[in-house]
Amino acid sequence: MDTSIQAHADAMRRELHELVAELVAELGPTAVQVMTGSRDRSTPAAWARGDSRPRAATETQLRLGYRVWSMMRDAEGPRVAAAWMTGANPRLGEDTPLTAIREARPADVVGAAEAFIGGIYAA
Q1: What is the rounded distance in angstroms from the CA atom of residue 101 to the CA atom of residue 68?
Q2: By C-alpha distance, which of 31, 9, 7 is closest to 20?
Q3: Among 26, 39, 82, 84, which residue has the least CB neighbours within 10 Å?
Q4: Structural domain contains residue 123
Q5: pTM over 0.85
Q6: 32 is in which domain, residue-wise?
Q7: Could you give phi then psi for residue 110, rounded to 5 degrees?
Q8: DSSP, residue by residue, 34-74
Q9: In angstroms, rounded to a whole number, what is the distance separating the alpha carbons of residues 105 and 110?
Q10: How far apart are the C-alpha atoms of 100 and 65, rounded to whole Å?
Q11: Long-range pairs for 86-93 at CB < 8 Å and ≥24 separation?
């Protein structure tokens, strides 16, 4: 199965608190806060514990973030995946993937991940 399709299926099937817990553990609560536009840095930890549930739009951001994170982690390892998620990206107009996720640009961020994994350097 295609990496992107498998990552999508995993992101949709996984319990929300589980995928948030992984994002918080691997990227940190501040990155998850940036990804979702949350006002409080402690909110992602509450989602990860299952103490509260985010709004529907935020859940969409979290599932997209997990999808892209897992694609990158599986292809490049967690260190490269974290650097890619938090670094400026020329395929995203020098925005970070976290910003593209927050701004609801799924085609852009998934395309940037696929290009990086595939070694495609021309924009």
Answers
A1: 9
A2: 31
A3: 39
A4: no
A5: yes
A6: 3-118
A7: -65, -40
A8: HHHT-S-TTHHHHHHHTSS---HHHHHHHHHHHHHHHHHHH
A9: 9
A10: 10
A11: 86/27, 86/31, 90/123, 91/115, 91/116, 91/123
- Structural contact between residues 24 and 48, judged by C-beta atoms closer than 8 angstroms: yes
Q: What is the CA angle 21-24-29, rounded to 5?
A: 135
Burial class for 12, CB neighbours closer than 10 Å (0-12, 13-18, 19+): exposed
**What digits encode the pLDDT tens for the residues 29-50?**
999 999 999 999 899 999 999 9
In the chain, the number of structural domains is 1
123 band by pLDDT with thresholds 50, 70 and 90: low
Residue 93: DSSP 8-state? T
93, part of any domain: yes
48 part of a folded domain: yes
Cα separation of 96 and 93, whole Å?
Answer: 9
